[in-house]
Specification:
about 0% strand
Length: about 170
């Protein structure tokens, strides 16, 4: 017997408010903080982000597929079903990294100043984390104060990364 597939939701919706999207934003912020410490350009940081997120995404898909193969007491899930569920769940890693990566690319191509691109990407990540925190509680039907608290709490992870960048520099 196989586990039913996840409901047909667009991959963007499935990955938008997810632990993977939050994790990707914090991961990318960490890469920006670390690379910026070494004086890397937006171009170098962009490729570091792309490479790191790609490896994490593929590893997450692989690990998720393995984890889903034997779900339940005695049920065995088909490989294709496990793989598709894992790709859907892991999409948040790519979605979460996309916006800061685009900002870094704008810095790399000199559409915006190179150093400002890294700071701008960090602040956009704080805003994105706040939005994800807000919508996580909104979807649960929480009151406005709880939604705002969720937004603030989630954004604090991005602010912590900015604090690290300030301390390191």
């Amino acid at each position: 017997m196989t586990e039913p597939e996840a409901p047909d939701r667009p991959i963007v919706e499935a990955g938008f408010v997810s632990e993977e999207a939050i994790y990707a934003l914090i991961l990318v912020a960490g890469i920006i903080v670390t690379a910026g410490r070494h004086g890397d350009s937006s171009w170098a940081v962009f490729w570091t982000v792309v490479g790191t997120v790609l490896v994490f995404w593929l590893a997450h898909i692989y690990a998720g597929t393995l984890a889903h193969l034997n779900v339940g007491r005695h049920d065995r899930v088909e490989l294709r079903t496990a793989f598709r569920a894992s790709v859907r769940r892991s999409s948040g890693l790519v979605i979460g990294a996309a916006v800061p990566a685009v900002i870094l690319l704008l810095g790399a191509t000199r559409v915006i100043d190179d150093e400002n691109a890294m700071w701008f990407a960090l602040w956009v990540e704080v805003a994105a984390l706040a939005v994800l925190g807000y919508f996580a509680f909104f979807k649960r039907g929480a009151t406005m104060p709880i939604r705002l608290l969720g937004a603030l709490t989630t954004a604090l992870f991005g602010l912590a990364m900015i604090g690290l960048k300030v301390i390191i520099h």
